[in-house]
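Design a sequence for this backbone.
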C-alpha cells in the first residue's frame, strides 16, 4: 500500500473514531471464507483495499458456546388491562390519537372482572385510570343514552359489568383518594336512574367510599337524599355466582336475614357508617345514625349494641359501657336462641360476642376498671360458655395478675367442666388459647412471659401452630432478636398456612435482615425467595429496602425485576415511599456516581409520575457530582415529558443554568439554552435572563452574556438589583467591559437609584477587571470623599478580586494598605486562597443570584 494511501486511511480511521486494523493479514483472509452467514456484516468503505466483512475477534468456531446467556428483563407485572389504560392516559396528555375504543373496552372488562375474581380492592392509581377509560368509552354513546339503563349488547355497558365495578369499588382500599370519590360519584350520577339494583349498588359503594375516606357525614347526607326501595332478602336472579355470595355475605354480616321476611337494603350501609362514627369518636354522628335507623324501622340488634359498647370504650365512659354491655348480652343470647338450628348463625354471633368481650376486657385492664371487668367475666361464666369465651377469660386472668402456673390450673378447671357435654363440644386448651395469651404478653412488651406461655402449651401437649410462630416472630423482632425470629420463621416453613397472615411479620423480618450486619446476603434472599415462590406481595418498605440492597451490590437487573413485580400494585402513597427512598439514595453524595445514575434510570423507567421537584434535585445533584452530561440528560428527560407537573418551569431552567455556571461547562449550557429557545411554554423573565448572564459569564462568554443585559433593559419587566450586580460581573470579565460598566453606572446615577456599598463594590471591580486599576481606585477615593461610599473590607476585597493578574493585585494591595490600612487589616484576617497563576482571592462572598 502506498504511503500516501496508508496515511489517508489512518487519518480517516482516526476522524471516524474507528479501529485501525491491517486488512492484508493472510490468516484473516483464509478465515474469511468460513465466516458465519448470520454474523454481523459491515459496509465496505470507499477506497478500502481489502474489505473483509468479518470483524477481528477470537471465537471458538464462532459458536459462542462459552458465552454467558444474556439476562432477559422481566416485564412489568400489572393487573389485566392496566397497561392499555395507561397508554390511553399518556396519549390523551399528548393530545394524540387514542387506542381503538374496542381495546379500551376490553381493558376495562378484563381489569374489573379480574378484580372481582381475586376479591381485591381498587387502588387510587387504578381508580383514576378506570374513570378516565370509562368516560372515554361513554363518549361514543353519550352519558344520557338509553343504552346505559337497559341490558346492552356491549359488554362494557352490560348490567353485569357495572355490578362488578361497584362491588370492586366498595372494597376497602389501602388509601382512599379523590380518584375513588370521583369514580363513585360519577357512577352514582350515571346509574341513579334506571335499574334499581345498579342504583342501589352504586349508592352503597359511594357511601362506603365516603366512610373509608373518614367522612361518614357525607355518607349520611347521601343516604338521606336517596329513596331506597325495600328489597326482599332473596338473591336477585340477575346477579352472578360471585355477586350472590358477596351480597349474601354483606347482609349476613350486618343483619340476621333469616328472621325477617323483608330486609332494608340500606341497613348494612347504616351499620358501616355507624362503625365509622365510632372509630372517629363522633358521638353526635352515632346518635344521628341511630335516629335514622330507628326512623327506617331497623330493629335493635346485637350489632348496634356492639357499636355502642365500643363507643363507650373509646370515650372512656365506664357507666355507659356497662349499660350497653347488658344490652349486648341480652340481644346476643336472644340471637343465639333463635339461631340454634343454623350453625353459621351461631358461629357469627359467637364470633361477635368474643370480639366485644375481648375489647371490653382489654380496655378494663388498660384503664384499671377491674370491677367492670370482673362483672363481665361473671356474666359470661354463668353458664358453661363456649371455648372462645373461656379463652377471653384466661387472657383476663393473666392480665390481672395471675401467673403462668395459675393460668395452667385454670385450664384444668375448664376441662373438668366437660362432664355431661358431648365430646364434639368439649372445652380443651389448644393453640388458639395459647395464642391469645401470647398476644397479651406482646401487648405488655413482655417477651419472657410469651415464651413461658408457649412452654406451658408444650407441657400440656399443645405444639405451636402457624399463628403461634407468627406471634413469636413478632415479639422477637420487637426486641431486635433477629436470630430468634429467623429460627421461628424456619419452623414456620413446615406449617400449613391457609392465608397470608404471616406476610406482615415476614416482611419485617426481611427488612431487619437487610439492615443487620450479622447476616449475609444469601440469608436475606432465602426468605425473599420463599415469599416470591408464594407470589406474595411485598410491603413498600420491604421493596425499597431490597432495591437499595441490590443497588449497593450493582445488581441492576434484580432491582428492575423487583420493582416490575410489585411497584404497579401499590397505591400512589406507597409508590411515593419507594420512589422517595430511591431518590434519597441518588441524592446521597456518598453514593457512587455510577450507582446514582443507575438508580435514576430505574426511577425514570418505573416511576414515570416522578414530579418536577425531585427531578430538579436529581439534576442539581449530578451537577454537584461534576457530571454535567448526566445532569443535562435529566433535564432533557423533563423537557420531553408529557406531564404538566414534570416539564421544566422557569425555576428549573434557572437551576440548570446555575449548575452549568458552577462547572463552567459551555457545552451543557448551550444544550439547555437551545432547549429554552424551543420551549413555547416558557415566558422569558428577568430572573431567567439573569441566570443566562451568570452562566455565560462563568463559561468565558461575557460579551454574549451582556447581550442578555440589553434584553433585560428593553423588556417590560426591566432589571432588578440582582440584575445590576450580575451585569457588572459580566463587565468585569468582558473585554472593554469597563466602558459598558461606566455606561450602566451613568444611567443609574441619572435615575437616582439607591447605590449601596455592595453596588459600589461591583462597579469598581468591573473597572479594575479590565486593568484600569487606577481609575477604580480614584473612583473609590472620590466616592469616599463625597461620602457616597463607606469603604469596608468587602469593597476592598471586591476590588482586589477584580484586578487581573498578580501585578495588578499588588498595585491594589499597596494602594489599600496606604489609604485604608484598618479596613485592609480586617480583610486580611479573613484569609485568602491562591490559584495556580498566583492570583489571590479573599474569603468574601461575592456570589450573585438571579
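Sequence:
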Amino acid at each position: 500500500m502506498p504511503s500516501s494511501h496508508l496515511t489517508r486511511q489512518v487519518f480517516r480511521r482516526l476522524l471516524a473514531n474507528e479501529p485501525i486494523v491491517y486488512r492484508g493479514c493472510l490468516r484473516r483472509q483464509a478465515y474469511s471464507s468460513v465466516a458465519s452467514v448470520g454474523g454481523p456484516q459491515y459496509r465496505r468503505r470507499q477506497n478500502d483495499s481489502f474489505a473483509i466483512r468479518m470483524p477481528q475477534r477470537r471465537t471458538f468456531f464462532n459458536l459462542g458456546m462459552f458465552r454467558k446467556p444474556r439476562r432477559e428483563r422481566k416485564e412489568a407485572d400489572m393487573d389485566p388491562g392496566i397497561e392499555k389504560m395507561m397508554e390511553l392516559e399518556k396519549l390523551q396528555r399528548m393530545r394524540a390519537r387514542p387506542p381503538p375504543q374496542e381495546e379500551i373496552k376490553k381493558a376495562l372488562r378484563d381489569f374489573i372482572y379480574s378484580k372481582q375474581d381475586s376479591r381485591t380492592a381498587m387502588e387510587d392509581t387504578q381508580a383514576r385510570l378506570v374513570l378516565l377509560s370509562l368516560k372515554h368509552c361513554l363518549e361514543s354513546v353519550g352519558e344520557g343514552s338509553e343504552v346505559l339503563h337497559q341490558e346492552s349488547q356491549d359488554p362494557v355497558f352490560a348490567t353485569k359489568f357495572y355490578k362488578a365495578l361497584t362491588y370492586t369499588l366498595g372494597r376497602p382500599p389501602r388509601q382512599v383518594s379523590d380518584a375513588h370519590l370521583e369514580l363513585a360519584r360519577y357512577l352514582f350520577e350515571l346509574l341513579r336512574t334506571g335499574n334499581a339494583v345498579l342504583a342501589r349498588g352504586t349508592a352503597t359503594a359511594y357511601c362506603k367510599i365516603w366512610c373509608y375516606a373518614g367522612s361518614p357525614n357525607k355518607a349520611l347526607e347521601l343516604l338521606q337524599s336517596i329513596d331506597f326501595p325495600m328489597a326482599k332478602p332473596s338473591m336477585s336472579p340477575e346477579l352472578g355466582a360471585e355477586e350472590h355470595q358477596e351480597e349474601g355475605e354483606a347482609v349476613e354480616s350486618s343483619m340476621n336475614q333469616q328472621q325477617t321476611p323483608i330486609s332494608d337494603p340500606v341497613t348494612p350501609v347504616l351499620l358501616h357508617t355507624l362503625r365509622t362514627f365510632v372509630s372517629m369518636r363522633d358521638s353526635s354522628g352515632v346518635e344521628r345514625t341511630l335516629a335514622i335507623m330507628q326512623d327506617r324501622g331497623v330493629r335493635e340488634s346485637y350489632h348496634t349494641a356492639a357499636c355502642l359498647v365500643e363507643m363507650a370504650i373509646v370515650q372512656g365512659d365506664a357507666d355507659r359501657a356497662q349499660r350497653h354491655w347488658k344490652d349486648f348480652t341480652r340481644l346476643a343470647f336472644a340471637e343465639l336462641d333463635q339461631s340454634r338450628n343454623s350453625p353459621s348463625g351461631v358461629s357469627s354471633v359467637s364470633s361477635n360476642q368474643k370480639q366485644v368481650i375481648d375489647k371490653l376486657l382489654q380496655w378494663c385492664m388498660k384503664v384499671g376498671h377491674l370491677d367492670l371487668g370482673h362483672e363481665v367475666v361473671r356474666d359470661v361464666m354463668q353458664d358453661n360458655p363456649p371455648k372462645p369465651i373461656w379463652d377471653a377469660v384466661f387472657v383476663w386472668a393473666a392480665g390481672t395478675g395471675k401467673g403462668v402456673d395459675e393460668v395452667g390450673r385454670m385450664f384444668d378447671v375448664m376441662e373438668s367442666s366437660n362432664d355431661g357435654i358431648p365430646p364434639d363440644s368439649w372445652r380443651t386448651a389448644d393453640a388458639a388459647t395459647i395464642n391469645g395469651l401470647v398476644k397479651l404478653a406482646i401487648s405488655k412488651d413482655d417477651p419472657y412471659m410469651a415464651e413461658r406461655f408457649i412452654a406451658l402449651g408444650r407441657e400440656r401437649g399443645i405444639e405451636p401452630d402457624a399463628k403461634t410462630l407468627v406471634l413469636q416472630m413478632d415479639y422477637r423482632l420487637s426486641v431486635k432478636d433477629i436470630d430468634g425470629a429467623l429460627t421461628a420463621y424456619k419452623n414456620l416453613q413446615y406449617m400449613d398456612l391457609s392465608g397470608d397472615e404471616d406476610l406482615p411479620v415476614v416482611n419485617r423480618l426481611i427488612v431487619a435482615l437487610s439492615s443487620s450486619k450479622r447476616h449475609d446476603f444469601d440469608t436475606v434472599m432465602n426468605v425473599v425467595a420463599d415469599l416470591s415462590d408464594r407470589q406474595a406481595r411485598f410491603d413498600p418498605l420491604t421493596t425499597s429496602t431490597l432495591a437499595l440492597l441490590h443497588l449497593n451490590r450493582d445488581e441492576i437487573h434484580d432491582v428492575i425485576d423487583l420493582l416490575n413485580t410489585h411497584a404497579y400494585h401499590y397505591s400512589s402513597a406507597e409508590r411515593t415511599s419507594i420512589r422517595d427512598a430511591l431518590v434519597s439514595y441518588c441524592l446521597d453524595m456518598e453514593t457512587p456516581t455510577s450507582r446514582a445514575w443507575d438508580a435514576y434510570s430505574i426511577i425514570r423507567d418505573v416511576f414515570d409520575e416522578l414530579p418536577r421537584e425531585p427531578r430538579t434535585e436529581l439534576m442539581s445533584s449530578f451537577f454537584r457530582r461534576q457530571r454535567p452530561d448526566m445532569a443535562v440528560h435529566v433535564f432533557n428527560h423533563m423537557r420531553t415529558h408529557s406531564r404538566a407537573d414534570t416539564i421544566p418551569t422557569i425555576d428549573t431552567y434557572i437551576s440548570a443554568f446555575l449548575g452549568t455556571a458552577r462547572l463552567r461547562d459551555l457545552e451543557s449550557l448551550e444544550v439547555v439554552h437551545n432547549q429554552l429557545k424551543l420551549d413555547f411554554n416558557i415566558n422569558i423573565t428577568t430572573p431567567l435572563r439573569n441566570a443566562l448572564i451568570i452562566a455565560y459569564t462563568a463559561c468565558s462568554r461575557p460579551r454574549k452574556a451582556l447581550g442578555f443585559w440589553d434584553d433585560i433593559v428593553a423588556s417590560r419587566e426591566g432589571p432588578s438589583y440582582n440584575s445590576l450586580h450580575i451585569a457588572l460581573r459580566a463587565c468585569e470579565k468582558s473585554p472593554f467591559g469597563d466602558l459598558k460598566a461606566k455606561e450602566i453606572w451613568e444611567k443609574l446615577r441619572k435615575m437616582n437609584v439607591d447605590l449601596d456599598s455592595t453596588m459600589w463594590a461591583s462597579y469598581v471591580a468591573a473597572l479594575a477587571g479590565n486593568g484600569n486599576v487606577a481609575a477604580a481606585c480614584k473612583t473609590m477615593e472620590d466616592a469616599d470623599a463625597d461620602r457616597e461610599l463607606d469603604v469596608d473590607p468587602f469593597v476592598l476585597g471586591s476590588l482586589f478580586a477584580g484586578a487581573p493578574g498578580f501585578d495588578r493585585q499588588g498595585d491594589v494591595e499597596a494602594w489599600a494598605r496606604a489609604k485604608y490600612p484598618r479596613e485592609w487589616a480586617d480583610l486580611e484576617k479573613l484569609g485568602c486562597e491562591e490559584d495556580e497563576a498566583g492570583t489571590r482571592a479573599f474569603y468574601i462572598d461575592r456570589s450573585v443570584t438571579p
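Residues 60 and 534 are 42 Å apart (CA to CA).
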